[in-house]
Amino acid sequence: MLTTTDTVHTVALCSLDISAIALNALLVYAIVTRLINLHDGSQLYVFVGACSHLGRWFCHLCQTIHLFFVCHSTVVLLHSFCFRLYILRENITEVKIPTSLVTFLICVLLYGPTLLMMVFFYSAFEYTPPELMRALHFEDYPTTWYPNITDHRFVIALSFVVILSPSAMVMMFFVRRRLLGAISKMK
């Protein structure tokens, strides 16, 4: 049975998700009908702000790091919940500090896949052709694009983001429920 906090959290997430889906659908409609009609499925990124003074490569690097670290934070959070559950389930009263090698291996296992996906995603982008920028009236803005969405680097990296983050959040919900159960048994 859901607690009051779980119910409020679920309602808040559902309402935010539904409004995000509706607004994203509206944005996609506006893009498809009014702004640009790219039938080949390519993705175009337009950067506006402070990073645009440093160049396209820097803007795209910042966007790549942000995208994958947001996804990575869910993995770290899931790892944290699993470790807490492990401590409570095993009734460990004294936690031994892991060796430097074990700590290094845990960091490699947690950061390695994210770093690899960031490299894939960043290496797949190209600078937008000048004729496309003129046609879209983006000459004054730094832009990058993915002209081939079937490029394996792009597909693998985007699949990592689209699949990992939501699945980690779902797993985290179940681990959290078990963690709350273990805590309630201790009382």
UniProtKB/TrEMBL annotation:
Membrane topology, from the record: Multi-pass membrane protein
Pfam families: 7TM_GPCR_Srd
Keyword hit for Transmembrane helix: yes
Keywords linked to the UniProt accession: Membrane, Transmembrane, Transmembrane helix
The keyword Transmembrane belongs to this UniProt entry's keyword annotation: yes
GO cellular component: membrane
Compartment(s): Membrane
Bilayer-crossing regions: 12-32, 65-87, 99-125, 154-175
InterPro entries xref list: 7TM_GPCR_serpentine_rcpt_Srd, Nematode_rcpt-like_delta
Membership in a protein family: Belongs to the nematode receptor-like protein srd family.
Protein name: G protein-coupled receptor
